[in-house]
Each structure stands twice: as structure tokens, then as C-alpha cells.
Amino acid sequence: MARLYWLLTILLTPLVWLYTLWKLWRRPAYRDRWRERFGWIPRRSGRRPIWVHAVSVGESMAALPLLRALRERYPEQPLVVTSTTPTGAATIRRHLGREVTNFYLPYDIPGAVGRFLRRQDPCAGIFLETEIWPNLYRVARRRQIPMALLNARLSASSQRGYGRFRGLFAPLLRDLPIAAQTDRDAAAFARLGAERVAVLGQIKTDLPDPQAARAAGQAWHLQLGGRPLWVFASTHVGEEALALGVLKELWADFPDLLLVLIPRHPERGDAVCAEIRAAGCPCRRRSRAETPQVGERAIFLIDTLGEVLDFYAAADVVTIGGSFVAVGGHNPIEAAILGRAPIFGPHMDNFAAVAEALVAARAAFPVAGAQDLRTQIAALLREPQLRAEAGERAASWLRSQRGALATTLEWLAREQVLPVPAAIRPAATGGPMPAADGRDRPPEAGADSQN
């Protein structure tokens, strides 16, 4: 089946080009560095980099502790981080700047992945969460680049999708080291054919305490007049309308309540603002440096990147987006880091284990829909002690989960994925052996027309 997939992706390459042109037209953010998606990146010079892939914002935030640990352990080793979305790339640039080199992940077509791997020739590849690309993994294996999947998880929908093509994925997963988040995830990967699976927890729990976000949160609380703040973060289509309906009911009892809406995709800002105004509410947009005046009944729309933690720190009540529509929710750990017990809806499939653990610790509030959401927010606003105690339980639960990063780094060494600091792993068969300074096989020249 792998050969059939390889052939199909070659035949479909013209359609990938057409899809790219359409996306460049529809979503201007994708115009930046679009050639990278076809593997047209600079050739490396010097040492072979350690390569980490994080799809979007959530995965990029989860990757930060890992990337900082890799920088500490391998200070002379280049780090390359690939992203899939512009928001993911922006997150990496914002937090790490020039500490890493950022590219977009190439499409899983033979020419693109071959070109990317020839030009960078990483000494190791580490993918996060649910990223399994047959052509890329196949070429990496052929080039003797060790790969691993960290923080691995499989939602119910992903299990069904991969399960339909088990014949394609089982050979890839059989020898792939996989560090699963939970026993449930490990069992799901095993059903797909994975054999080298360990349960190591979630490395995002090792994010350092965000002191800058706490300071920013205090500043926002003062700037907004000390009003009660309801932060609804990572919202998707349909959730803004739900929030506006709930807010209007809450205003009857909490007239000063300010709703802070943070769309998962900031490029939806125009559409969300239009929806807010159509509902009869003023919209103040962060991207335009607008701020609600003290006492003003306006919606504060955060259509920018990288400020979720700041507003979590300022919030009295936090609600997780993607959980009231069939998206699967987003990671509630960021709220717990800042001592906020999140509210989420019935669709938390992507983070079911974390959601269940927080609920079991009485550190989160699951609700069924809009009416339950209104009732829960009202209870939290009326009872500051309930809010504070639940937030402390969320922070305490998070502290109890720390340590996954150190365990994961040790596991990567045991699985011979990461190079040892003193000497980078031997070059591929037929290539030069690495020098003592870690400058292993030299960059390849030419051959970019090959698959």
C-alpha cells in the first residue's frame, strides 16, 4: 500500500499546486514563505540539525519545554522547527526568535519531502501529537534519520481515520518510537500496529511558570477597570454566537461583566467582529489597539497572536473553545498553569484524558450547553471562594503531573533517537563518519530534481 500511496501522491502533485494557489488567494497569511511547502529551503551548513515538528499554536506551545531542553543539552547543535500553519510559525518566532530556524513542513509529496530532507539532512526528527506522514517517514527511514512521535495522542476521529488505512500506517508505526500521553492513547496506537510505545505523559505540563503573563494579566485587570472578566479562548464558528447569547443573559445579574473573545484563528477577526456588531454589541479589536472603556458594554476581541496566557491571567472565568462545537476542544492545561479552573463543553475528544483528570480533581467544570454555561459562570462570579479553590486545585493537579519532559528526554536517548552530546550519531551507510566536533556528513549538492 505504501507504493500505491507514493504513486498516487506523485500523480496528484498538480492538484496540490492548484490547491496551494487557491489557498494563497483565499488566505493571504499563507503567501509568506509558500515555497517552503514544496521543500524549497536553504541548504544547511555545518552540523546536522535536530528537527522538531509542531503543527500549530497548541503543538508549538507544547514543544517549547522540549526545545528549551534540547538547546540546553545540545548548545552547539542547530534546531530546526517546522510548522504547518502561519499561527504555529508565528508562535515559534515569538517565543524562540533566532534560537531556532523555522520552516513550513513540506507537503507529503515525494519531490517536496525528498528536497527538504536532502537540504537539511537532520540528525533526528521529532514530531508532536498526531503527525504521521507516510512519504516523509519513508524517505527519512531510507536516509537513516531516526524519527520519534512525542506527546502522542489519537482522538476517536483520528483512530477511525487511520484505522481505515491500517495497511498503510502499520508498517510505518511498527518501528517508530512513540511516547503516548495516556494508556488510552498507547492502546490506540498499538491497535494501528505500533510496537515501540511508551506512556510518558504530556510534556506541556513542564511549561515554566509564565511570570510575564501574570504581570500582563495584572496590567489588563487594572486597565479594564477591575471589572469581572469572562475569557472565552480558542473559539470556532458557532461559539461566538453562543457566547453572545449567554452574555446578554448574564448582564441582567452582572452588568459590568466583560467578555473577552479570542478566536482560535485570528484571521477570522473581521467575520467575528461583524457578528458581534450584528448582535447589537460594540466590538473593540485588539489588533487595532482598541480597548473597551471602563463601564462600556463592549466585546473585547483579541484577534492577535500570543496573548491567550495574558488574558487567562486576567480572567475571573475561563471557557475553552472548540468544546461547544464538533472540533474536539483545546488543551485546558494553559488555564491550569495560571490557576484557572476552566469551563468546557461536551466536545473535548482531543483532550479527553486531561479533561477527565481535571474534572476528577474538581479543577474544571464540564457543561452540556449554553444554559449550563450561563449557570456555571454565574455561580463562579457569585462565589469568589469557589473560583479560587477550584483554581488552586487546577494548579495543584498540574504540579502533580510535572516530570514528563525529563522522562521523555531519557527515553529518546534509550531509543537512540537523539544524538549523544559528545558525538553525533554515525552517518548513513556509505557516508563519511562524523568528526569529533559533531560535523557529520556534509551537505549534499545538486540532485534536487530527484524524488
List the helices and strands and how they pair.
Layout lengths: L1 H10 L1 H14 L23 E4 L3 H17 L5 E5 L2 H11 L4 E4 L5 H11 L3 E5 L5 H9 L4 E6 L3 H8 L2 H9 L3 E3 L2 H9 L5 E3 L11 H13 L5 E7 L3 H12 L7 E6 L5 H10 L4 E3 L13 E3 L6 H7 L2 E4 L12 H5 L5 E2 L7 H9 L4 E2 L3 H13 L1 H18 L2 H11 L37
Parallel strand pairs: 1-2, 1-4, 2-3, 4-5, 5-6, 6-7, 8-9, 8-12, 9-11, 10-11, 12-13, 13-14
Keywords: Cell membrane, Lipopolysaccharide biosynthesis, Membrane, Transferase, Transmembrane, Transmembrane helix
Subcellular location: Cell membrane
Protein name: 3-deoxy-D-manno-octulosonic acid transferase
Task: Write down the CATH class of the largest domain.
Answer: Alpha Beta
The percentage helix is 40-55%
Mean pLDDT: 91
What fraction of the residues are assigned to beta strands by DSSP? 5-15%
Largest sheet: 7 strands, parallel
Distance between the termini: 18 Å
The CATH architecture assignment of the largest domain turns out to be: 3-Layer(aba) Sandwich
Give the spatial strand order of the biggest sheet: 3-2-1-4-5-6-7
Query: What are the segments in which pLDDT stays under 50 over at least 5 consecutive residues?
Result: 423-439
Q: Count the domains.
A: 2
Cα-atom radius of gyration: 23 Å
The CATH topology label of the largest domain is Rossmann fold
**CATH superfamily of the largest domain, called what?**
Glycogen Phosphorylase B
Got a strand count?
14
The chain-level structural class is: alpha/beta
Number of helices: 18
Q: What is the molecular shape?
A: globular
